[in-house]
């Protein structure tokens, strides 16, 4: 499958582009909560945003909770992006098939977009709490899958090297 940029999902290492996309997935909910909080964001004390939203008199309770969930979604994204980026680098370095690395990388990004939507918009509905956890698990398994692919293909390389070395 070719694109206007000449990139192929099967041939090009577009998994590296998933890392800045994952950063965007992490940062957009933060921007949303900061902008929509109607002045509750204080750039001199940015970590107080959740507390400032909770005590803001200009926001109704439902909006406060949604904005706090957006900030929490952002924090959760940032907590997992390191593992994901390391997995992308490891899988590519180990020589895992490009299509596998791309699928797992962009799957992570897609699941992160879904996670943000579910957490921010459905997080206030008690009956859907399991959905957020399920989507989070898919995100994490995508990252773990990158390391599994790295392990499989780096092991194949070592085994092949050992066979070549023994024949010398």
TrEMBL record:
InterPro entries on file: MAPEG-like_dom_sf (IPR023352), Membr-assoc_MAPEG (IPR001129)
Domain of life where this protein originates: Eukaryota
Record keywords, A-Z: Membrane, Transmembrane, Transmembrane helix
Transmembrane segments: 103-122, 134-153
Subcellular location: Membrane
Organism: Bionectria ochroleuca (Gliocladium roseum)
Official protein name in the record: Uncharacterized protein
Any one GO cellular component localisation term in the record: membrane
């Amino acid at each position: 499958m070719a694109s206007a940029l000449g990139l192929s999902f099967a041939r090009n290492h577009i998994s590296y582009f998933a890392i800045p996309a994952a950063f965007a997935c992490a940062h957009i909910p933060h921007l949303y909560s900061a902008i929509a909080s109607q002045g509750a964001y204080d750039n001199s004390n940015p970590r107080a945003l959740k507390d400032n939203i909770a005590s803001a008199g200009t926001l109704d309770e439902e909006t406060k909770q949604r904005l706090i969930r957006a900030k929490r979604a952002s924090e959760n994204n940032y907590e997992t992006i390191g593992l994901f980026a390391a997995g992308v680098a490891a899988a590519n370095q180990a020589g895992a098939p490009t299509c596998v690395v791309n699928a797992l990388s962009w799957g992570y990004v897609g699941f992160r977009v879904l996670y943000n939507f579910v957490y921010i918009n459905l997080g206030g509905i008690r009956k859907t709490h399991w959905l957020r956890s399920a989507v989070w698990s898919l995100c994490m398994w995508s990252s773990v899958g990158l390391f599994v692919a790295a392990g499989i293909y780096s092991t194949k390389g070592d085994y092949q090297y050992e066979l070549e070395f023994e024949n010398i």
